[in-house]
């Protein structure tokens, strides 16, 4: 196995506790869209999180269109995507917090100067930038090291498509095998694993009663090892490096 040189972190609910805030905003817009289409179904933020965790808003709306058999004109679709970004960023700026222990570990890794580091997310670039800015991680992740499946690619996509991980590797001049990803969702794990990147699963952002179930989900998607606390990351990384 090649020497590990690069760490690629998912953002939402891996570095920062953003998913609850984001899915609240997504639910508001999803319900507006469903109402305009004459569809009676409604979603809470928790409903969307359960069904679409790991997807960005564009991916969620594409899935909802298929599920309920309707189609938004491209201009309307893009307008909703922009509105969602704005509403989520507003919530992030007001209330975002880092995942417990994440900042300490990222700071330690940065101080060691052993690895290059980047954020690889499905979320829109503006949202990821707002997230790292809000929790003070922008000093570790400059704009050139933030990769978004929604905005960094010529054709926007979402995890589990591996395109954003492959793009990050290409831009950084890295082979997938010399990278390690950290992911909290099935879709994110599949994205990294399909790109050929060894992946640490993180379940610490889930409620305690969900963590064991999510261990199974992430393991089945290819994550190994899996941690419940960021304090475990050095041991997880060492285990991968020893393979």
TrEMBL record:
Gene3D superfamilies: HAD superfamily/HAD-like, Putative phosphatase, domain 2. This is HAD-like domain-containing protein. Pfam families: Hydrolase. Keywords: Carbohydrate metabolism, Magnesium, Metal-binding. Its cofactor is Mg(2+). Coiled coil: none annotated. The lineage of its organism: Eukaryota, Fungi, Dikarya, Basidiomycota, Agaricomycotina. The keyword Metal-binding applies. One of its GO terms (molecular function) is metal ion binding. Transmembrane segments: none annotated. InterPro entries: Beta-PGM-like, HAD-like_sf, HAD-SF_hydro_IA, HAD_sf, PGP-like_dom2.
């Amino acid at each position: 196995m090649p020497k590990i040189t690069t760490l690629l972190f998912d953002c939402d609910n891996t570095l920062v506790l953003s998913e609850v805030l984001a899915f609240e905003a997504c639910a508001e817009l999803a319900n507006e869209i469903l109402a305009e289409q004459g569809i009676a179904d409604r979603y809470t933020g928790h409903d969307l999180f359960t069904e679409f965790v790991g997807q960005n808003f564009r991916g969620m709306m594409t899935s909802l269109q298929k599920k309920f058999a309707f189609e938004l004109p491209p201009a309307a679709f893009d307008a909703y995507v922009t509105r969602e970004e704005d509403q989520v960023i507003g919530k992030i700026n007001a209330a975002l917090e880092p995942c417990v222990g994440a900042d300490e570990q990222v700071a330690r890794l940065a101080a060691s100067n052993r690895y290059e580091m980047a954020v690889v997310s499905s979320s829109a670039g503006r949202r990821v930038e707002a997230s790292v800015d809000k929790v003070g991680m922008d000093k570790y992740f400059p704009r050139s090291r933030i990769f978004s499946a929604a905005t960094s690619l010529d054709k926007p996509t979402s995890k589990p498509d591996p395109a954003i991980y492959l793009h990050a590797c290409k831009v950084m001049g890295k082979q997938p095998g010399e990278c390690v990803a950290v992911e909290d969702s099935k879709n994110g794990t599949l994205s990294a694993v399909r790109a050929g990147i060894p992946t640490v699963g993180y379940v610490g952002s889930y409620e305690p009663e969900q963590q064991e179930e999510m261990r199974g989900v992430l393991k089945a998607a290819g994550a190994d090892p899996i941690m419940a606390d960021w304090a475990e990351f050095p041991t997880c990384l060492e285990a991968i490096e020893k393979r």
